[in-house]
């Protein structure tokens, strides 16, 4: 008896509750499935199915055997994938979802190098600021920004998500430069409406975690937007002070089109520390195409991230 084929046939017949359906799926004769099950029953000395007009029904022994058989088949498949992956190059279609602004600025520009390094991978990008259900949408990997909610997804931290208080030289010429967080209450604040509340939380830069004490600042201002690039454009136009991520505002800061305010303070929109993550569905063995994508961008971003070059360490 081909024990592996027999166990596989039994598991499929149990799930489909039919020898004929299992046979069609496995492209063999129904009599072959029946023979496999009969051979297993002789080997085990117990009936695995009860036959009825409604189809196949597992016996108690059949239920016990099916549970263990599924685990054995999964373990064997994992072993096969782990071994075969040693000699296979990353290949196939890779579907990735990305935040729109971050994706355009820090993923798309590096894709030519990725495609050159991995010529057998095809990419399907989904740029959206909505959190996509990866399993339902058939997504292989995602880049997400912020604090990850509890989920069954696997995650690799790619970079910190640093935000800094900044504004245009023209704005500060007209309204003065704040020296402490409380000064912001007298300024026009440009807010991202996707974030909860109208407060920024500040801590002294360089403090140990044990000594950190967050100072909330109530924000005032006439402008808010649901798009981070729009907030950047408003800050560049001198409309107010913004709290922007360094991956978005870095170029403008280095060019002097934005000025870093309150450099001795760290600012957040919430108590938890946000980050930039690569996430992917949980599997015992991560596919080589997903691993290649995650490792490539971890390498490209670097530590500290390349977009922080030329920006003061405290942000």
Automatic annotation (TrEMBL):
Q: Is Cell membrane among the key words of this record?
A: no
Q: Which GO terms describe its molecular function?
A: DNA-binding transcription factor activity; sequence-specific DNA binding
Family annotation (SUPFAM superfamilies): Periplasmic binding protein-like II, Winged helix' DNA-binding domain
What does the sequence similarity comment in the record state about its family? Belongs to the LysR transcriptional regulatory family.
Q: Name one GO biological process term.
A: DNA-templated transcription
List the InterPro entries hit by this protein, alphabetically.
LysR-type_TF_proteobact-type, LysR_HTH_N, LysR_subst-bd, WH-like_DNA-bd_sf, WH_DNA-bd_sf
Q: Does the keyword DNA-binding apply?
A: yes
Which Pfam family is one of those matched by this entry?
HTH_1
Domain HTH lysR-type: where? 1-59
Name of the protein: Transcriptional regulator, LysR family
**What are the entry keywords?**
DNA-binding, Transcription, Transcription regulation
């Amino acid at each position: 008896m081909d024990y592996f084929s027999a166990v596989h046939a039994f598991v499929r017949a149990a799930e489909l509750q039919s020898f004929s359906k299992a046979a069609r799926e496995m492209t063999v004769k129904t009599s072959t499935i029946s023979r496999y099950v009969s051979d297993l029953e002789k080997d085990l000395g117990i009936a695995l199915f009860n036959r009825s007009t409604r189809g196949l029904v597992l016996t108690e022994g059949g239920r016990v055997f099916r549970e263990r058989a599924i685990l054995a088949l999964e373990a064997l498949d994992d072993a096969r994938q782990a071994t075969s992956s040693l000699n296979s190059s990353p290949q196939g279609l890779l579907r990735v979802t990305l935040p729109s602004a971050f994706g355009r600025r820090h993923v798309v520009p590096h894709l030519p190098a990725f495609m050159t390094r991995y010529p057998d991978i095809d990419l399907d990008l989904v740029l959206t600021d909505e959190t996509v259900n990866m399993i339902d949408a058939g997504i292989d990997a995602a880049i997400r920004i912020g604090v990850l909610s509890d989920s069954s997804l696997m995650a690799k931290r790619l970079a910190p998500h640093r935000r800094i208080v900044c504004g245009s030289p023209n704005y500060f010429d007209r309204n003065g430069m704040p020296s402490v967080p409380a000064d912001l209450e007298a300024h026009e604040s440009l807010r991202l409406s996707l974030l909860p509340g109208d407060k920024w939380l500040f801590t002294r830069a360089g403090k140990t975690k044990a000594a950190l004490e967050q100072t909330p600042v109530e924000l005032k201002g006439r402008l808010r937007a649901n798009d981070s690039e729009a907030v950047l454009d408003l800050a560049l136009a001198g409309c107010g002070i913004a709290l922007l991520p360094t991956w978005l505002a870095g170029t403008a800061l280095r060019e002097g089109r934005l000025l870093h305010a309150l450099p001795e303070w760290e600012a957040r929109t919430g108590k938890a520390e946000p980050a930039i993550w690569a996430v992917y569905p949980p599997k015992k063995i991560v596919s080589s195409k997903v691993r290649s994508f995650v490792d490539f961008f971890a390498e490209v971003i670097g530590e500290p991230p390349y977009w922080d070059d030329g920006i003061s360490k405290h942000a």
